[in-house]
Modulator of FtsH protease HflK (mine drainage metagenome), 336 residues
Amino acid sequence: MTTPAGTGDLFAAAKDKLAGLIRVPGLGGRGVLLLAGLVALGWISSGIYKVQPDEQGVVLRFGRWIDTTEPGLHYHLPAPIDTVLFPKVTQINEMDLGDTTADGSPAASSREHQMLTGDENIVEADCTVSWQIKNAGQFLFNIAEPKLAVKVAAESALREIIGRTPIQSALSDKRQQIADQTLALAQQLLDTEQAGVRITQVQLQRVEPPSAVIDAFNDVQRARADQERARNEAQAYANDILPRAHGEADRITQEAEAYREQVVDLAQGQAKNFLAVYQSYEQSKDVTAWRLYMNSVDAVLKKASKVIVDSSGKGMAGVVPYLPLSDKAAVKGDKR
């Protein structure tokens, strides 16, 4: 059985072979070793690399992503074992949704930006999405088409948020809220897929009804504005008339209370007077009865005409009319 060559024999064979490959006049065996050492040192030191502040380093080992490095000095195994990519991660990229496709070409149909609102109306919405690379390794190797992924995530998020929002809010005071919620939902979708993308801003460019129905929609808007104006006028009238009505009601109530107190007091006075008369009647029934009779007769005779009868037979058959000086009507009648 043949014995393998020793370590010294292998080293000598390698040195002879290297010397045969590198034939430099005047270079001995030690020179060959020195040159080989310098080459090896240069090869090893080639693994030192620097990542710039606007970059991330993506380390590949035999073409497979193994690490992502931040700005600064780093080391990787020399080529061809490891290689490094340096994508720009601070660059802000913009993408318009609705009017263009992911590669920037015009959209094939306007249906791409037609969306259904929460109250089942159709609107056309366009927005601009600003994004940058968050993790270069994920961006390069987890998603086949990162730009398309950003577009799909942003469109899906926008449709979802518009679908929760009434059309009046989408067209007026909720635009910024829609943009913020779209950003948050799109970022959540991308993070779930580990796309390595950070969405920095979503800006709504246009939210309006489709052009085919915009005239009818404007008519509805004007009708709603008239309705709101009429409601405001009615509310203003109510605010004016109600306090006055309450004041009038309070006045009538107070007058009724005063009248009630007056009637009660009068009734109580009459009752007390009756009781006083009754007590007098109990003490002296004949006198009280005569006084009441005379009072009644006096009250009746005040309204009756008076005639004086002369029993002596003198004058006009003994009948003399009574004409008081204060009776002006009688005086005037006499003149006639």
